[in-house]
Design goal:
Keywords: Membrane, Transmembrane, Transmembrane helix. The protein contains 20 helices and no strands. By secondary structure, it is mainly alpha-helical. The chain is globular.
Length: 497
Amino acid sequence: MTSNPQPAPAHDAPQAQSGSPERVKVSMLGTGSIVFLVVAAAAPLTVMAGVAPLAISIGGVGAPVAYLIAGAVLATFATAFTTMTKHVGSAGAFYSYVSKGLGRTWGLAAALLALLSYNGLQIGVYGLLAVQVRQSLAELFGITVPWPVVAVAAVALVLLVGWFGIEVNAKVLGVLLVAETAILALMAFGVLFKGGAGGLDGVSFTPSAAFAPGMAAAIGIGFAAYMGFESTALYRREARRPERTIPRATYLAVGFMAIFYAFVTWAAIQAYGSADAVGVATTNAPGMFFGIIERYVGGWAGTAMNLLIVTSVLAAQIAFYNAITRYMFVLSAEGVLPAWVGVLHPRHGSPNRAGIVQSVLALVVILAFVVAKADPYQGLLLWVNSPGVVGILVLETLTAVAVVVYFLRRNRAAMTRRAVIAGTVSAILLAAATYLVVDHIALFTQSGPMVNAVLLSLVPLSLVAGAVIALRLRVRRPDVYARIGEGDAGDVGKDAL
């Protein structure tokens, strides 16, 4: 590869708006705050009440093991990428890792894939939020509200929360996450204390259950339950002592989700008994968890769960909004996106311009589905969300490969056997997980081959588009190309996010 020119001076990077201080708040977040931010993105209550019954109906009573397997693979992956964290100064998260390991062209391809994926996950869930709010308003107050009104109001609310900066975001998400986790724990312990349907058992963790037909698809569903955990690296500049905080937050997030998901799913199976749980999950998936909590805790708890699902989805929206705006900020700092996109709020230090752009994009997508008279669940949620799930898995796979290449070819002096082994193993396992999700994509989209082919094609097309843009920059704007993956390095890193 030809030598690259030096990065452009820091004054070209986006700055705070006029009248703001030159430096914005940094080093604000501790381990707990970052854990709240990333676990909230996974929306535990929504994942459990909305998706776990599907995992049980397909994988059988071994479904809890699917979450443990997915968690173990992602923990291995975390070992690899957190070892590299100290060598990546940028807050550009995974695409910065890919740039360091595989080169700038692959890095920008990964950045475009990340934007596609996170926007797909965030914007698609507005459909679910609209359905949940509409249903709750109808059941509790007898009010019927058109779903687009709910979705647009949610976009405005997410933008407002994001506007006030990361400290406020972390506090809001912390409250919402504790609430949704508490209601799931209340349900699970209610089942535990009452001994389930006919006594508790460990059938879910036997080899016959773990290797039952359908478990491959259940494992694919299990990986989708962790979407957002990888965004810990995005908060590098806002973390206190990031070399320690980011790895701790990553391990805590993965560990908590793995154990909690497995425990709650096992408790749901015990609530109906291992012999009958699969049948209930198959015939009444939407009402499975609500039936459990009403039976083992009380009707009031069922009402509370209904309401907390709404806040769970909203928390995920806010968390993904944070991830998207931070990607956009770093790309603006590098010169890939216009400088005005990365302008910070003069008081709160939030990337509010990036937030406005993302919110407008969300409104455009929502409006497109309204004009097409598409269903908010089938269309907006499943069709927009599914490419995001595949894209994140591909991004994680690329990052695992990049870690191995970085230590073997670009920085052998810093190489550790643990990082290389973990990177290699996780790359193979994540590639297998990606295959499982793609092979069972109909479970995620609930659509036919033609729609699935179009949705899946968005992932490789985004990679190709990113690579083409990078190559054009290399020829026409070599100064910008040289900054890809550097993010907020140097002086920019001291001032930005």
